[in-house]
Amino acid sequence: MQFCPLSSGSSGNSMFLRGGGTSLLIDAGLPARVITRSLASLDVAIKDIEGILITHEHNDHVRGAAVLARKYDIPIYANEGTAEQLSFMLPQNTVIRCLSSEGTRFGDLLVKYFPVPHDAVAPIGFVFEADGVRAALATDLGHMTPQVVQAITGAQLIILESNHDEVMLATSRYPEHLKARIRSSHGHLSNTQAAQALKAAVHDDLRHIVLAHLSRENNDPGLARETVEAALSSNGHIPIHVTGHFQVGPFLEI
Predict the structure, then answer these.
(1) Homologous superfamily assigned to 2-243
(2) pTM surpassing 0.85?
(3) How many angstroms separate the Cα of 149 from the Cα of each of 13, 47, 72, 154, 201?
(4) In 3D, which of 4, 2, 7 has the Cα closest to residue 18?
(5) What pLDDT is attached to residue 92?
(6) How do residues 154-183 score in pLDDT, each as one tens digit?
(7) What are the boundaries of each domain within the chain?
(8) What string of DSSP letters covers 108-136?
(9) Alpha carbons 153 and 241: distance in angstroms, whole number
């Protein structure tokens, strides 16, 4: 299985995943031309993408989806609630297919989804299974739930939000209502929350951790990594990667 973020954060989110011979995008919150160019930097042609999986309907996750779908005949996949919302947001000729609650197969790649707590209609995370590998992705969530814990437990690759540092957020110039939204149970995970969740999910076969959706204003990549490393210090060395805004990588093969 191969995985690579194309960009992660409030400026736009999109990630590439290939497993079981199938290539997918997870979200398309960047202009279509940027996504196409970023894929090309990985030697991946846009025509090879067989579907765009959408976590939720916020613009930083769907901005380029309709253009990619129409221009390159790529179907969009979402759960029922998000698909209904997208049907109102995107042009009428955009193909939107519903993911099965039991799991959807793309060749030898199995995609399952699970609910996450965020201020969207029906936000979800994903579990991917192929090639004897399990990867779990959960971004844009305000707190850990039993469903999220179950999803990331046992995965060889965990992609988890680490959005903000509590002190940086408290002292930032953000208005109080926005700070409250970010801190809320349907907002975004802090570095400390992410670290605690990952500490509970560590197992002997965990190969990589990817910290995603970091705030530009209220976080620092080094601080996010240090917070998680401190929580995992007794669990040996597990590679921890940090994504960035309009930053391709890391490219991971498991």
Answers:
(1) Ribonuclease Z/Hydroxyacylglutathione hydrolase-like (3.60.15.10)
(2) yes
(3) 22, 35, 36, 10, 7
(4) 2
(5) 86
(6) 999 999 999 999 999 999 999 999 999 999
(7) 2-243
(8) TEEEEEEE--SSSSS-EEEEEEETTEEEE
(9) 18
